[in-house]
Write a structure and sequence with these properties.
Structural class: alpha+beta
Order of helices and strands: EHEHEEHEEEHEEHHEE
Distance between the termini: 36 Å
Length: 240
């Protein structure tokens, strides 16, 4: 997947995309580098890898693997949101694996995101590397009354969650913070578990650095990438 691609989506436009697809993906990218041919060894290996990730991922919420060799080798991973149950994780990975093959039928690389999971594959080894190529933003259409104060609260909450997430095996953390008007701010951060703790921290700090571009003064927002993501809202969205 070549040069960086940034997509900006309001929550409303994301819902329109979901309705058009008849499913629940948030977004996807197809690689533009190279295609494979039907019934080729690469296609066979991709199918095997998709089945492997479907089987492997639900138990821990994360799976990665590689099948094949030389030009027919395919690398892939699947990640479920840290609060997703094994059954919901399994269903999401199944949907993601099928949908991305439909959307990118001959691409040697692709990535798709849902609320509960992401699924990515490529013909080169990307494990352990921060994916700065595939990224999109989402934000709530509602503006807060005092953007400067609110933005500071968001950054403070997410920074604290980063400090927690990169020190735990799941590379995932959630939390909340009280606001002056008795409402609460809720946040989530997560990395793919092929990253080291240091790389996870670096990825999330980079994502938070994009807050002004993504969600300045918005009641909710997300920066979602191929290696890490964050989300904040003024309503609870994490399963407990």
């Amino acid at each position: 997947m070549s040069s960086a691609r940034f997509v900006l989506l309001s929550f409303c436009s994301a819902l329109l995309i979901q309705a058009a697809l008849g499913a629940d993906p948030l977004f996807h990218f197809c690689s533009t580098s190279e295609n494979f041919t039907a019934s080729s060894p690469y296609e066979s290996n991709l199918s095997k890898l998709t089945s492997f990730l479907y089987t492997m991922t639900p138990a821990s919420g994360f799976g990665l693997g590689s099948i094949g060799q030389y030009q027919d080798q395919v690398y892939g991973l699947a990640l479920c949101r840290g609060d997703t149950s094994p059954s919901d994780c399994k269903a999401c990975v199944a949907d993601a694996g099928a949908e991305i093959r439909r959307l990118c039928p001959r691409n040697k690389g692709a990535i798709i995101w849902y609320d509960n999971c992401m699924f990515k594959y490529l013909d080169t080894n990307f494990f352990g590397q921060i994916d700065n190529t595939n990224k999109f933003y989402m934000w709530n259409l509602n503006n807060v009354s005092d953007p400067e104060v609110f933005n500071s609260k968001v950054r403070g909450l997410l920074t604290g969650l980063i400090d927690e997430a990169y020190t735990v095996p799941k590379l995932y953390a959630t939390g909340e913070m009280g606001l002056e008007d008795k409402t609460k701010l809720y946040g989530l951060v997560q990395c793919t578990r092929d990253l080291t703790a240091a790389k996870c921290k670096e990825c999330l700090e980079g994502a938070i650095g994009e807050l002004p571009s993504c969600c300045n003064g918005k009641e909710g927002g997300r920066v979602v990438g191929g290696s890490c993501n964050f989300r904040y809202e003024i309503y609870p969205f994490v399963n407990v």
